[in-house]
Amino acid sequence: MNQHIDANLPRTSSDSQLDKPNIQKSAVYNIHGLGGSQASLISDGKKSTMDHLREVGPWCRRKYQQVFRKKILYKRVPVLSWLPKYNTDDFVGDLVAGFTVGLTVIPQALAYSSIAGLPAAYGLYGSFLGCFVYIFLGSSKDVPMGPTAIASLLTFQATQGVWQKAVLLCFLSGVVELLMGLFGLGFLIDFVSGPVSSGFTSAAAFIILSSQVKDLLGITAKGNTFVQQWKSIFADIHHTQLGDAVMGFTCIVVLLLMRLLPRLKVGPPDADQQTTLQKIINKTLWLIGTARNAIIVIVCGAIGFAMYTEGQDPPFKMIGDVPSGLPAVQPPPFSIPEVVDEAGVVLQEAQSFGDMFSSLGSMLIVIPLIALLEDIAICKAFADGKSVDATQELIAIGVSNIANSFVQGYPGTGALSRGAVNNASGVRTPFGGLYTGIIVILALLFFTPYFFYIPKAALAAIIIAAVVFMVELRVVKPMWRSKKADLIPGLSCFIACLALPIEYGILVGIGLNILSILYHAARPKIHMDQLITPCGIKYLMLTPDRSLIFPSSDFVRNLINKHGLKNQTPVVIDCTHIYGADFTAAQVIDTLIKDFKSRNQMLLFLNPKPSVCSVFEGAELEYRVFYDMEHLEKAIQEIRRKSFQA
């Protein structure tokens, strides 16, 4: 046996337990030995090529049965679970919700295109096909696929408004999301803590707001970071257009007031006690408040139409021509041709796929992670206690983005604002996305000529009135009360996102989180208790609060040695909270045992887990282990008695 047991001591039940791991260990060795002999016997019998070919069919059948089990199929294609139970109530709920979200997504798509630096049509191109795909693969009824403010901002920073790069980014990010889903990498979002997520979202809100100030004031401004944007704004602020500013600020005020309408209630608070008229009024107020973006776009578009005169400058800037009809279904562009004007000046340099790929850089990882973060936020917000399958959501948004890239869409995911509208509208299943997609298609087919007259200031107002509520100031106070240290990664991420390109900012936050995790793993806390046996022998009980792994091994050894030298009493390591160990930790524990042995000081182990024992056995440690306080204290007394007799 690896453990050392004094033969003169009476065998206790705790000591007898030490044999069990060794019996199991030897049995495992026997099995491994038998497996090795069998393998050598099999290898002696040569197989022909035909024998190997015959094994291909059974192997494929086994893999097919493992992958295409009914349970797995229903999990990976969720529509199979709810579609057979679809009824009239589901149809009505999905129709109302889909129509309402459609009224929300059209103005948002037009506005978000400006954040991405793309023509307005590209926001609409990315707002319908993904909805159809999500019906089949999505696991949440509340997720409306399409462009989001943060995804649009990241797209702009990666592509600088080049539509070919934006469409290719949609395709490649979809591929990355799909691969992450197939390999079960949804757990990666667990490394983005709440404080980092809040810091990133708040910084993104400030950057998005800053990017819209130019349209709000009718000026020209550029910049990738918050600081660069405001430098450019102040450099051109003296060119502010009065018409754009009046239109923009008026729309912001109206939007913020309309946002309050759903909270107004006529009649008793309980809906069951309200009259039919009161219910109609309340529902109308809710619908007006929910569709406020669409109402602003329609009203401002009508004003723009009335004030536009061909050949004269309008009082405010308009979004201009939007191509009519559906986009062509074609593969995403894998290269950019050279564009030369009539004078021979190169307007756009040619780029190969390699050039485009390298220019996208880290965004190919950042965008999928942020897309998943936004999507999971919606799923959790309306899950009603149900578990959220991050892997399935990765597959759904990945395939949706791949599909969107074939209709010239740019990266999208679920938007929390539209998810809230979807849920409040009474959506029953993901089938609501069908009606949202149809609304967008109808807009592309019949209403694009009227989009020409929509003022840019109105779209900027829609974005600003939405993103101001993305600044998560509400989390600072409870974070300060609960754990002040959590403010460090949150504030660091916030500042870094404003000062640096946003992808570096979130990497700073995640990096600080990982450093914090590593620090706590390398510096476990050890609780110390001075105890006395019934016979009056003092001993020291040390209880580490977490597993022993290589970063913490030397720290734990030095701390235990320090307490051992200071007290010069038997030391017991309580392993109750040690759920795992590695080889490095086992080597350090072996050195620790030798340290105590060299100074004739007792070191015992209490309640180690079987997994920890197996690691110690593999390293051939000689150690004493107990699973009962009574037997432990008897052993301490017996060892002390024998040492006095010697």
Automatic annotation (TrEMBL):
One of its GO terms (molecular function) is secondary active sulfate transmembrane transporter activity. This is Sulfate transporter. It holds the Pfam family Sulfate_transp. Residues 540-639 form the STAS domain. It comes from Culex quinquefasciatus (Southern house mosquito). Its main location: membrane. Keywords: Membrane, Transmembrane, Transmembrane helix. The chain crosses the membrane at residues 91-110, 116-137, 166-189, 245-264, 285-308, 356-373, 432-452, 458-476, 488-519. Gene3D superfamilies: STAS domain. It is a multi-pass membrane protein. One of its GO terms (cellular component) is membrane. It is found in: Membrane.
